[in-house]
Design brief:
The protein has a single domain (about 5-260), classed as NAD(P)-binding Rossmann-like Domain (Rossmann fold, 3-Layer(aba) Sandwich), CATH 3.40.50.720. About 45% of the residues lie in helices and about 15% in strands. The protein has nine helices and eight strands. About 50% of the residues are buried.
Amino acid sequence: MSTTILITGATDGIGLLTATMLAAQGHKMLLHGRSADKLAAAAKQVGGDAETYLADLTRLGDVQQMADAILEKHDTLDVLINNAGVLKAAQTTTPDGYDIRFVVNTFAPYVLTQRLLPIIPKTGRVVNLSSAAQARVDLSAMAGKVRLDDMSAYAQSKLAITIWTREVARTMPDGPVVVAVNPGSLLASKMVEEGFGIAGNDLSIGADILCRAALHEEFAEKSGAYFDNDAGQFAQPNAAASDPDHAAAVMQGVTRAIGTIV
């Protein structure tokens, strides 16, 4: 059965390969990117009348506009894959004073998910890209008051999206399924090349698990769970995610920051 699937960060890396694989299975693909030229090239590669949506995820206004454009065109979105992420950037602070890693990796997918939930059926899924790199969130850093090095910001932003995955899933016991996935460490993505200076492992390792998370039965009853593809199984994320006080503080920080930026 054909489904409608939106993938953010779909112009290269795991996002593009996942979109190509899903389109080959006959699914309707909605592709997000921040470059019009790269989006056009991605749509051509993916084929199947793929739709494109242009947005800079460092700007939450762009995220809202993209969501509104999708809502205008679609009554149903079966799967949302929040794949877009950033580790390094020339400018790591947004004009609002927030760390770009928290904005792109944590805040933007939260805004997009909340905006699109009305058209995601209870049988649908939200797949959030987490990472093996997770660290307890410095709430002051997430609020833009403390500066972090690249890896610390990235690891904290990835725990933050894992936390909100769990918390949002808890509020929707009847669905849709919301899961966090570490697609695999050091895969051959632009992020890995820029961040670590290595070619990385086969991207299909990550694309395969994202396809499974989006469609396969093994994830159907796993809302709120974290899948660690390095271990090949569902696992516990960083212990801070299970600290109710920390989780609550992170959720408050996320909503507060989004309210300030938007």
